[in-house]
Specification:
Layout (H helix, E strand, L loop, with lengths): L1 H18 L54 H24 L1 E12 L9 E15 L3 E12 L16 E13 L2 E8 L19 H6 L10 E8 L5 E7 L15 E3 L4 E3 L14 E10 L2 E11 L5 E3 L4 E3 L2 E13 L2 E12 L14 E13 L2 E12 L2 H7 L10 E13 L4 E10 L4 E11 L4 E12 L14 E9 L1
Antiparallel strand pairs: 1-2, 1-22, 2-3, 3-4, 4-5, 5-6, 6-7, 7-10, 8-9, 10-11, 11-14, 12-13, 14-15, 15-16, 16-17, 17-18, 18-19, 19-20, 20-21, 21-22
Amino acid sequence: MRFAALLPWLGVFFGSLVFAGEPGLPPGLGGKKEPALPSGLNMPAPGGQSGKRIDEPALPGGLGKTGGSVPQPQEEADTVSRSGPLLKSWADARQALGLSGFWEARGGVRTGSDRQEKDLSIAETRLQLQLAQHFKITSLNLTADFIYDHVADRHSINLNTGRGWIDLRNANLFFSPASFMDVKVGRQILTWGTGDLLFINDLFPKDWNAFFIGRDEEYLKAPSDAVKASLFSGWVNVNIVYAPEFDADRFIDGRRLSYFADSLGEIAGRNAVVNPNRPDDGELFLRLYRTFGAYESAIYFYDGRWKSPGGFDPVNNLALFPKLRVTGGSVRGPLAKGIGNIEVGYYDSHDDRKGDNPLLNNSEFRVLAGYEQEIARNLTLGAQYYLEQLLDYNRYLRSLPGGIPVRDETRHLLTARLTLLTHSQNVMWSLFTYYSPSDQDFYFRPRVNYKIDDHWITEIGGNFFGGQNNHTFLGQFRNNNNVYASVRYGF
């Protein structure tokens, strides 16, 4: 019955393969053309951000079709002559306003039973509008998603959590007060670091619900309300970001995905929605970076709070965001026939420096090493090793109440990403896998993305979890396995 709900979405996907026409093969090649596969968790990023990778082919903005030169019957020609100026006027207006965006429909179902959640994992349509206006001394950027979400129980707007019928992604002003300085003020998507869907020094907010239910990978990054200043020199470049109010992750709270609740000792969902105590103090982010030959190096600092709840107040039954300071560094550059990277970070849990409070996260040391190489034409393999070392472990064990699952002192995680481009690179087959040998759990993200033409893109994929225990990070999501399909029109 659950798969029956997905049939209309699969029909859209496969129908597009049959009727939309397929990408042409290089001249001289014949044969039948065929039509479309994903986070421990990094995308190549826009704007040259180190280590971020966007898998989907980008849609050119402002593209429109005009009438051809083939003679038309009189009635048809009259129709073209009447509509042509309208279409041209609309295209000119969009270009003048710097307006672009897309419309998308996306649906998915759970492949198993979860008594705490709805059978539909995702069922939504969204219209994204992007407005870019450039003035003499500044630029204005606006991006808003207008959403109908059939799975959500409420549609009232909350811009911090992303719930509601509108999600404001960008609303900022960009200007350069000096030749060596850029400033961006307002809501913006921020990212840095070298990991591929694994984050150590990238402490900007993430949307884990969007990631695990099958939204486009771009929605893993949630917006920040901040001021960003970039300073440039021949010796070192500096990014300073200040958020006057703490921007938490859009974390797993039980509304969309089930999770392991320590207080209940079992997997919970809508029966035990997490209620957080959201602080209103600010955050400071700092990055110093420069290149040495072909190698990009960076030093990072963060002063704020754990981005997802890292503590619990049993008196008021509230999840907490303890204070956190992170210091780290990274290097990325050529290695053998590919690109290698290494990143480290020290997580100083400021509210539990002794590590003897079982209700707050201990301090941690984290390290990540990765490598990516094209192993065959249009076939790329990326692999990563990630480690979390829990500090003050003996104090943690002595303070832990009975009945609470014990964390390993060291958590290991391996990831692999395979990406194959076919049909003149218009079809992308992708598989991203996570496996933890210490937790003995896993997560698979298969995906097929088909760029039909300059406007239409369709995709199918899934999210599959498993593990030996239901309290480990990936194992707790075992009831959230899902498949999805989507179609998008870009303009």
